[in-house]
Structure formats: C-alpha cells, structure tokens
Sequence to fold (351 residues):
Amino acid sequence: MTRTLAITAGIFAVAIAGGVLHYTDAEPVVTFVVTGAALGGVAWTIGIATESVGARYGPAVTGALQSTLGNLPELFIVLFALSAGELVVAQFSILGSLFANALLVLGLAIVAGSTKQPDGTMTFGARLPNDTATLLILAVFLISILGLSDQVGDRASHHQVEISVVGAICLLVVYAAWLVGYLRSDRTAEAALVESKHSVLPFGWAIVLLAVSGVLAALVSEWFVDAIDPAVEALGISKAFTGLVIVAIAGNAVENVVAVQLAAKGQNDLAISVVKNSVAQIACFLWPVLVLASLFFEERLTFVVDPVFLGALALTAIAIWQITGDGRAALYEGLALVSLYVVLATLVWFE
Fold:
C-alpha cells in the first residue's frame, strides 16, 4: 500500500505541474508532454482504485467497473475537444481507443498470458469475447451504413446527425440489455475475487482516490486538449495521429497496464474482461453518449468515418472474434493483433 500511495503522490505532482505549465503559458510541447504523462498516470490511479473497490466482486463486475471508470479520461478528452471545436481530435480519439484496446492491449494481454502457460495457450471464458464481438459488429453495421451513405452522397447523407442520434439511442438500449444480462449471469471460470487477498488499497482509501482522480482526469484533459493545437504544429504531426495513437494510449492507460498485469498473473478471465468490456463500452456506450452530448456543442459528433477506418473497424471485429471466440489464444495470435495496430498507426502517420 505504501508503494502504491507513493506512486500516486508522484502522479498527482506531475498533474499539478501540468496545471502550472498550462496557466503560466509555458512552451506548448512541454505542456503537451507533461499533461499527456499526467493523463496516463491519472488513468493508472483510477485503475488501481477501481481494482480495490471491485475486489469483493467477480470478474464480470470488476471488469465492467474497471472499463467504465477507466474510460473517464477519454470521455473528458473528447468533451473538451468538442467544446474547443477539435472535431478531428474528438473522432480520432474514440477510434483510437477502439483500436488500441481491441488490437494493442488485447494483443499484449494475450502475449503476456500465453507465455505463462506450459502449452503456450491462454484460456478464458468464451462468452464475453463472443458477446463483445457481436456488439462491435452491431456498431460497425451502423457506421458502415452512414459511411456508405456519405460516400455516395444520397439524400440520407444530409441527415447524418439525425441518423447518428437514432443509432446512438439504439446502441445504448442494446448495450444496457446486454450488460444487465451479463452481470447477472457471471459464470466465468475464475472464482470471485476476495477483497482481503487481492485488494491493493482499503475500500475507504480507494473511494477517496477515485474521487480525486476523477476530478484530476477532468482538469488534466482540459489542459491536454488546450495544448494539442500548438504542440502538434510545433512537432509536425497530424491531429489524426495525435488522436488515434497518442491520446488513445494515454487515455486508456488503465487497460494498457492492468490487463497485461492480470494476464501475466494468470488471471485470464479478469484480464479479458477488462479489455473486452472496454471495447464494448467504447463502441456501444461511450461513442453513443458522446454523439448525444455533442448536440449541445457547435461541432456535432457522428458515426461517419473515412472508408479506410471503416474497413479497419470491420476487420478488427472479425479478427478479435476469430482469435478469442473459442476461449483460447496463442502467442502468435496476440502478436498478430499488435502487428495490425502497428500497421494502422503507421498508415495514420502518413495520412
């Protein structure tokens, strides 16, 4: 506990430093780097606190809780990006979160989990991977319809916002129905966690840390978004790459770290639960919620994406269904997912 609190104090110090840089109009690149690091650190503290709060429950509840609170930084980043008129950053941040979790984090978790097994194969419950693949395919179906309509320029393409709102509501209803059923019928092979054994922090400390981290996530996200424009101009990188790679990895530090650690410890069901819950949440909860929230901003977020990313989303859904649908994954399959992410990030670098 002492070590965890010491690391947390260091992370909070970095966050405060980011605030000082923001309000003193420091060099944008420095502010961008410091607030980005702080964002990843705050996401880590949220993950630690959430793991402690959820330690008395089973993998399903804990995974859902981890994913929900772990997506707080991403939620704030997109909201502040929309309020600042940064629609490209907002959209690519969501896409980046999907790709980062479904390809990079899941791939790394499979690599970590498979290398710990004598036969080189990571095993886990098959229901959640199949469910989340279905939810992702549902979201891709909606995105495909809007994307194709936008490309051909038909009459419906002039009503992208309205169609996106209807689609968002439908996705939220489906996601809610799935989540309730999933939490009620948690039958994963992994036994329920016991707080005294697995909790990193006492329950009271974890609640306080969650509250403080939530506030810091909002503040640091605002400072980070404010630094994006001048920083990317100075660094010579595109906003698309910033959103798809940099923001996505920083905003999803919880899943990046926690899932890989859990897989390395042999807690395969919980590791998969954290990642796959996050994928489902981003596609069928976070994105729809942000589409509805954008109605209050001048810039409206929709489900319309460029054809290359539409294709990437479809292939991602097929890949994770194929690799994890049978409840088994080998080392090469994890490396394949990571490789897909590296290729996609390279493509966006040259966009």
Q: What stands out?
A: The chain has 14 helices and two strands. The two ends are 45 Å apart (CA to CA). Residues 22 and 234 are 16 Å apart (CA to CA). The chain has one domain: 2-349.
